[in-house]
């Protein structure tokens, strides 16, 4: 650990002192204890108990995706500040020797790296859209997928709920506008019911994504005006700025148009998703119920350990 760097404070320091999180010396990048992982696994099971009966196709992607697909997705138009790319050494022996000298001298050695064909996955659903497009038109009842992936967003912070690498579970619905808006409405109710059973304070609010720049502010305003995104907020780092732990998103035909995904009737498909921030929910539980899970309220333990 860096000896001269500012030490963690507040909730983050408590999490590290209790052993739930393990400091790596990089803000937003932490190891997790077995207990922390157990709570996430229990919450993962709870999600499945609420959504598993819908018959979603289960798909699991690695935490990296095709750079070409990433570029086509339009992510860089909206969120360039969050993107993470993967670079690698491709030089000769002389370049290798220069690299080692730079490492030994403690100077930047990354200028000799070149971009690879993969980038870090920004959201669990992003690798899915080209896969669905390749399958051809949807069936009459559309399609539903169950995803989970580690995701990366470059926003280092000492807020433990704002990690750079974190897990996202998603249900993603493809179909007609009516099919996908019904899906989102169903999960707006389910999500609140599910989280209320965990005994944490909740607030559902309209929201927007962190679009970049002046044009991004217009996109954010439009997103809020059209009520395309809702978030289920739970106080974690502060009461004044509660953290989004679940999100409910209606993408309209954005991904359908981008990837050429069609309904059975030949129209551009609409999509919607519900996303669960796995680490954030675990943090909310520890924040509001304490670090000893054996002393959590019986009602909460009965939900997570049925």
UniProtKB/TrEMBL annotation:
<dbReference type="InterPro" id="IPR045864">
    <property type="entry name" value="aa-tRNA-synth_II/BPL/LPL"/>
</dbReference>
<dbReference type="InterPro" id="IPR006195">
    <property type="entry name" value="aa-tRNA-synth_II"/>
</dbReference>
<dbReference type="GO" id="GO:0016874">
    <property type="term" value="F:ligase activity"/>
</dbReference>
<feature type="domain" description="Aminoacyl-transfer RNA synthetases class-II family profile">
    <location>
        <begin position="151"/>
        <end position="306"/>
    </location>
</feature>
<protein>
    <submittedName>
        <fullName>Amino acid--[acyl-carrier-protein] ligase</fullName>
        <ecNumber>6.2.1.n2</ecNumber>
    </submittedName>
</protein>
<keyword id="KW-0436">Ligase</keyword>
């Amino acid at each position: 650990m860096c000896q001269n760097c500012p030490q963690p404070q507040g909730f983050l320091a408590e999490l590290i002192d209790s052993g739930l999180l393990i400091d790596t010396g990089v803000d937003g990048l932490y190891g997790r204890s077995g207990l922390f992982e157990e709570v996430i696994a229990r919450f993962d099971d709870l999600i499945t108990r609420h959504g598993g009966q819908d018959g979603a196709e289960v798909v699991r992607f690695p935490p990296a995706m095709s750079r070409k697909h990433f570029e086509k997705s339009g992510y860089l138009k909206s969120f360039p500040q969050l993107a993470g790319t993967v670079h690698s050494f491709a030089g000769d022996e002389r370049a290798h020797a220069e690299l080692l000298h730079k490492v030994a001298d403690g100077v930047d050695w990354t200028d000799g790296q070149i971009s690879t064909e993969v980038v870090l996955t920004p959201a669990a659903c992003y690798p899915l859209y080209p896969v669905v497009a390749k399958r051809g038109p949807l069936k009459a009842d559309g399609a539903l997928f169950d995803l989970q992936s580690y995701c990366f967003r470059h926003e280092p912070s000492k807020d433990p709920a704002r990690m750079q690498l974190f897990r996202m579970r998603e249900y993603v619905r493809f179909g007609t506008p009516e099919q996908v808006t019904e899906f989102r409405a169903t999960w707006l109710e389910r999500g609140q019911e599910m989280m209320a059973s965990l005994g944490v304070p909740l607030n559902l609010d309209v929201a927007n994504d962190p679009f970049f720049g002046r044009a991004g502010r217009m996109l954010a305003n439009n997103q809020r005006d059209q009520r395309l995104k809702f978030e289920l907020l739970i106080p974690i780092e502060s009461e004044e700025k509660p953290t989004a732990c679940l999100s409910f998103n209606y993408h309209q035909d954005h991904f359908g148009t981008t990837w050429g995904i069609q309904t059975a009737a030949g129209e551009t498909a609409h999509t919607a998703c519900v996303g669960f921030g796995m680490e954030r929910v675990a943090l909310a539980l520890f924040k509001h119920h304490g670090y000893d899970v054996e002393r959590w309220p019986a009602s909460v333990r009965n939900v997570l350990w049925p």
